[in-house]
Every structure is written in C-alpha cells, then in structure tokens.
Write a structure and sequence with these properties.
The complex is a heterodimer of chains A (about 110) and B (about 110). Chain A has no helices and 11 strands. Chain A has strands spanning about 5, 10-15, 20-25, 30-40, 40-50, 55, 65-70, 75-80, 85-95, 105, 110-114. In chain A, strands 2, 4, 5, 6, 9, 10 and 11 form a 7-stranded mixed beta sheet that branches. The mean pLDDT of chain B is about 90. Chain B is globular and about 45 Å long. Chain B is about 0% helix and about 55% strand. The interface of A and B includes residues 98, 103, 104, 107 and 108 of A.
C-alpha cells in the first residue's frame, strides 16, 4: 500500500507570495492533518480535515488555510508568505478523525521563504 | 492544558548500549492515547507505538520497550542494544478525547556512535 505522498518536496518562495502544498493520504484513509515543523517551535498542529470538513484548527493566523477534496486529498495554502513561514510542512493521514487513530506521516514539503 | 515534555534534547550513546528516552505528559482528558514517533534524517515521521490511557501494561517489540506509568504521567521508551540505525529524533505525542489534536514533545535527538 502506498504511503502518504506530498508534493512538491521542496519549494522556494519570496516574501509576499502565496503557496499551495498538496497531500495524498494512504488509500482508504479519510482524515488528513497538517503540521508545521521548525527548529524553534517544533511540531505544531495546523488543521485536520475529515470528509471534506475541517475538524480541528491549531493556533495559526488566517493566512494558513486548507481544504480536503472528495477523494480525501488535501491542500494547504499559505498566503502573503513571511520569512518565519520557512519550515517543513508535514501531512499525516489516518483512517478516520478521532483520538485513537494513529497518524501516518508523509515525507514533508520543505518550504523556504526568502 | 495538554502538554508533552521531553526533557532530553540530545543523547549520545555508544553502539550496543541501552538508552531510555523520557516522556512526561499533562492532560485533563479522562481518556487519551500516547504515541512515539521516530524521525530519521530523511524527515519522515515513522509511527512506533500507540498506548491507550487505560492500558498500563509495558510493551516490548524486539529491541524496543515502553514503560507507561499513569501515576507519574510518564511514557518512557527504551532501546536495548542500540544500533547506528537507531540514530534519529524521537517524538512523544499525546492525543486526548477532547480537542483531538496531537500534542508533540520537542523531541529527543539520539545519536548512536559506532
């Protein structure tokens, strides 16, 4: 079974631009979560989607948004990029939304903002 | 509040030594799950174990073992006879039955020296 895939793997953007990252969950998984990982803040939860609905949202500004499609694939968008948005963005999928389900992570998208 | 603390930032051991990674958590949830993930240099988080708050039995999987003690709110991870391939950052995480977010510790970077 294929794992979680994320595209692109690496991205370089300029301050003020916007970016869209994509995540394809493991086949059969219906929940997708997004995390930001930085050396200073560690792993921080961005949001979780299940059945095309946002179920949970972390403490990030409105510049960070996401969506999930009917095939469970998800995208996250960051508008008006700031230098501090440089990070590894990880997507994780699980069978369903709920605290008992383990999440399986993708390889991440490394975003660099210059 | 939900919080996971991994006090050990970096650990170095010589190959074949045993090593224990500490994890202490805080939660007000009555039911929760605890997780350990491994992040090798490639960046992808690899799921290792999930433990229900009602199940305090220790678990052993090959060279890995986990000690869950609710009385001290700890979920420690021991690697026996460490190998170079164990070098990675290890994250402890908590997910409760309210809120549903994953809360990750800051990670422990383990280096196994040949």
């Amino acid at each position: 079974k294929a794992g979680v895939t994320q595209t692109p793997r690496y991205l370089i953007k300029t301050r003020g631009q916007q970016v869209t990252l994509s995540c394809s969950p493991i086949s059969g998984h219906r929940s997708v979560s997004w995390y930001q990982q930085t050396p200073g803040q560690g792993l921080q939860f961005l949001f979780e989607y299940f059945s095309e609905t946002q179920r949970n949202k972390g403490n990030f500004p409105g510049r960070f948004s996401g969506r999930q499609f009917s095939n469970s694939r998800s995208e996250m968008n960051v508008s008006t990029l700031e230098l501090g948005d440089s990070a590894l963005y990880l997507c994780a999928s699980s069978l369903a939304a709920g605290y008992s389900y383990e999440q399986y992570f993708g390889p991440g998208t490394r975003l660099t903002v210059t | 509040a939900q919080k996971v603390t991994q006090a050990q930032t970096e650990i170095s051991v010589v190959e074949k030594e045993d090593v224990t990674l500490d994890c202490v958590y805080e939660t007000r949830d009555t039911t929760y799950y605890l997780f350990w993930y491994k992040q090798p240099p490639s960046g992808e988080l690899v799921f290792l174990i999930r433990r229900n708050s009602f199940d305090e039995q220790n678990e052993i999987s090959g060279r890995y073992s986990w000690n869950f003690q609710k009385s001290t709110s700890s979920f420690n991870f021991t690697i026996t006879a460490s190998q170079v391939v164990d070098s990675a950052v290890y994250f402890c995480a908590l997910r409760g039955n309210t809120g549903n977010q994953f809360y990750f510790g800051t990670g422990t970077s383990l280096t196994v020296i040949p």
